[in-house]
Amino acid sequence: MKNILIVGATSAIAIACARQWATQGARFFLVARNGERLKQVANDLTARGAQLAACHQLDIDSLELHTGMLERCANELGALDIVLVAPGTLPDQGACQADPSVAVREFNTNAVSVIALLTPIANLLEAQKRGALAVISSVAGDRGRPSNYLYSSAKAALSTFCEGLNARLFKAGVHVLTIKPGFVATPMTAGLPLPKPLVATADRVAADIVRSVEKRRNVIYTPWFWLGIMGIIKAIPGFLFKRVSL
Question: Using an 8 Å Cβ cutoff, are 21 and 2 in contact?
Answer without folding.
Answer: yes
